[in-house]
Write a structure and sequence with these properties.
Blueprint lengths: L1 H18 L5 H18 L2 H9 L3 H33 L3 H42 L32 H12 L6 E6 L6 H9 L2 H6 L2 E6 L6 H10 L15 H12 L4 E8 L4 H5 L14 E6 L2 H5 L5 E5 L5 H12 L2 H4 L5 H14 L4 H12 L4 H9 L6 H14 L4 H9 L9 E2 H10 L11 H14 L4 E5 L6 E5 L2 H14 L3 E3 L19 E5 L14 E5 L3 E2 L9 E4 L3 E2 L2 H4 L8 E3 L20 E3 L41
Parallel strand pairs: 1-4, 1-5, 2-3, 3-4, 9-10, 10-11, 11-13, 12-14, 13-15, 15-16
Antiparallel strand pairs: 6-8, 7-8
Length: 661
């Protein structure tokens, strides 16, 4: 996303221009000229992005070149800024001597910065020549819209679990769970993607009659790619605290399954297996031991799937409930609840005209709740009758998934600014059906400069507005809210929306998802797409991660063991539940790093070189160390950490030097 890249670099260049008056004058002048040229680029990026979406290959190459040049400029500028940061930390006579000793090396680095910026400027001149050949209008201005100040008192995020049109199905499924015979039995909810399976299952799971009837309730999302041991461990986490069940990382499937079996044999339980894709999933979960025993106490299994054969393939008495699409009236009720929320209706003129157009649009969605919800979210942000008529006139002739993708693309394009569009694509970095902590997500967005500085608002406030905007548009599903402040605490993204994000992010070079299903024979992403500056490794069996040297963000989920390549320009490193092999050897060289996340990782050693990371803002070491004393004191020497704790007197020793180019 070239537009975002240029905006980010301009913000950092602006900071450098204010703080960098002590730098070599020639370099400062080069930076000022570079800033002017980058501002010229901003003038036509919106039109260029539109041409890329229409399939213009030459424009796509041009945008990739702009992004590359912008990030190259930022790396060079930060090299100069890093020296200033380092030299300002220590005070006194010894610090002066140290700075004097480093002066030759600093001057060499500054000369390299100047050469690098000159090279970027030459690239920009070539880009401007290409602009003229491609006839892109340089007078187009991309004015970012401001997000409204939301009154959280009017927000009803529980709408993600409120059903429209499924009331009868809900009652029927609840009755079948709490009534019937004593044998262990299953209910399978089957329907196509976006039809509301998970919504119905979640409503059933939280029903008071269900909670009162079952002693143990467990919800696990299986997804298309899963590991049995991870599912079993997730089930253990949801066991009642009074049973005293505990596990460790070394336990295998049989050991974890045996613990689950021994607890459930004594309880009436309900286990929900959401989003099951394969017919042998039940057999895989129970292959070493029958984790879900039949104690003849009316325990139940509730399963959701898109496939009829999966719904029937469970080794127990099973009732298959095929979920119907919404009828026309129920479809309108859902669309209007999103597009014309009750707290806005009093301010809407000509409400009957909106209803006429809205009912016509409702028919186009074929009764699919996800399509109706996302379209309703888009319409709620475009409350004028002409906009609704334009949607109707431009409706594609495709059905099902392609129709859904068209609705998503329209809503994405309608997002108020390129920052929010980047934030939405960023969600693809997380695995399928992953529950995303909003606080963690905000830290990642800020670390990557996805959140702009705005008057009267700190970055975290703006980021929470972004989450609210995505929720209002039904582009994310709200999982949990804060009862006191009304904030959204946890979200997830629907599989169909995530698939669209992956496709868009990959084509744009914004993000690559690398797992066993997307790799080619050489283990690399498709050569038809531009090289990405962000990579998310998921469910990979390779120990040594392959990544381009200019990578800015690296994610790791579902990896057993990880060896990191040399990544000098990394801004974000976020890995969960993996054994790290060479972390202490490479981390000291990641001097651009803003976020370090190693949640529940093993073999983690924080070296003293971590104090070189003068841009580091947030650290997530949850589940890594048992005691605070195990954490390296070098972490508290980093002055830029965004924390309520007082790090004390900062100190730094970087005499070993940093390789920039």
């Amino acid at each position: 996303m070239a537009e975002f890249a240029v905006s980010t670099v301009l913000a950092n260049v602006g900071n450098l221009a204010v703080q960098g008056t002590s730098f070599v004058c020639a370099v400062t002048l080069e930076v000022a000229v570079l800033k002017d040229e980058l501002m010229r680029l901003q003038a036509y990026l919106k039109e260029a992005e539109s041409k890329r979406r229409s399939g213009n290959a030459r424009v796509a190459v041009l945008l990739s070149q702009i992004r590359d040049a912008a990030y190259e400029a930022e790396n060079a500028i930060e090299a100069a800024e890093y020296m200033k940061k380092r030299n300002m930390i220590k005070k006194g006579f010894k610090a002066a001597v140290s700075r004097y000793a480093r002066l030759p090396g600093d001057l060499t680095t500054l000369r390299k910065v100047g050469v690098k910026i000159q090279r970027v400027r030459r690239k920009l001149n070539e880009i401007f020549q290409s602009v003229e050949r491609l006839n892109i209008d340089l007078d187009i201005q991309d004015v970012d819209e401001c997000l409204e100040d939301y009154d959280l008192a009017h927000q009803n995020f529980e709408g993600d679990f409120v059903m429209v049109g499924f009331e009868n199905e809900y009652k029927e499924i609840v009755n079948k769970l709490v009534q019937g015979g004593n044998m262990l039995s299953a209910i399978s909810i089957v329907a196509m993607g976006g039809a509301g399976k998970t919504t119905v299952a979640r409503k059933v799971y939280t029903a008071s009659a269900v909670k009162q009837h079952f002693e143990v309730l467990v919800w696990v999302t299986v997804s298309e790619k899963f590991k049995v041991i991870d599912l079993l461990k997730e089930i253990v986490k949801q066991m009642p605290s009074d049973v005293g069940l505990s596990i460790n990382d070394e336990m295998n499937e049989y050991e974890v399954g045996k613990k689950i079996h021994d607890i459930l044999i004594q309880k009436r339980y309900l286990v929900v297996l959401d989003d099951v894709w394969e017919t042998d999933t039940w057999e895989q979960i129970n292959r070493t031991i029958k984790a879900f025993p039949d104690a003849a106490n009316s325990s139940r299994v509730l399963l959701t799937t898109r496939k009829q054969d999966v719904a029937n393939h469970v080794e127990m008495p099973t009732h298959v409930h095929s979920l119907r699409c919404l009828d026309e009236q129920k479809s309108w009720e859902l669309l209007s609840s999103k597009a014309l929320p009750s707290y806005k209706r009093s301010d809407i003129r000509d409400l009957d005209k909106f209803e006429i157009s809205g009912r016509k649009l409702t028919k186009k969605c074929d009764g699919l709740p996800l399509a109706l919800a996302v379209l309703g979210g888009y319409l709620s942000k475009n409350l004028n009758t002409q906009a609704w008529s334009d949607v109707l006139l431009g409706w594609p002739s495709t059905k099902d998934t392609q129709m859904m993708w068209g609705i998503i693309a329209r809503s994405y394009k309608d997002l108020p600014n390129h920052y929010l569009r980047s934030c939405f694509l960023y969600l693809a970095a997380f695995p399928e059906d992953f529950i995303i902590s909003v606080s963690d997500l905000i830290n990642l967005w800020i670390a990557e400069s996805l959140i702009p500085y705005t008057p009267k608002h700190i970055l975290e406030e703006t980021a929470r507005k972004y989450v609210t905007e995505l929720a209002q548009r039904s582009l994310v599903q709200v999982v949990e809210t804060n009862d006191i402040y009304g904030w959204i605490e946890k979200i997830k993204i629907h599989d169909i929306l995530r698939d669209w994000c992956i496709e868009e992010a990959t084509q744009d070079g914004f993000l690559d998802i690398i797992d066993e299903t997307t790799r080619g024979q050489d283990g690399a992403p498709s050569s038809h797409n531009p090289i990405s500056y962000r990579s998310s490794f998921q469910n990979s069996s390779e120990q040594i991660l392959q990544a381009p040297p200019n990578l800015r963000a690296l994610f790791g989920f579902g990896l057993l063991s990880v060896s990191f390549p040399k990544l000098r320009f990394l801004r974000v490193l976020h890995v969960e539940n993996a054994r790290l092999e060479n972390f202490s050897e490479v981390i000291g060289g990641c001097v651009h790093l803003r976020h370090l996340g190693l949640r529940r990782c093993r073999n983690v050693v924080i070296p003293s070189s971590v104090r070189k990371l003068l841009y580091l803002q947030t650290i997530d070491l949850a589940g890594v160390f048992r005691h605070e004393s195990e954490v390296s004191s070098s972490l508290w020497d980093i002055p830029t950490l965004r924390s309520d704790a007082d790090p004390g007197d900062a100190s730094l020793s970087c005499d070993a030097g940093v390789e920039w180019f």
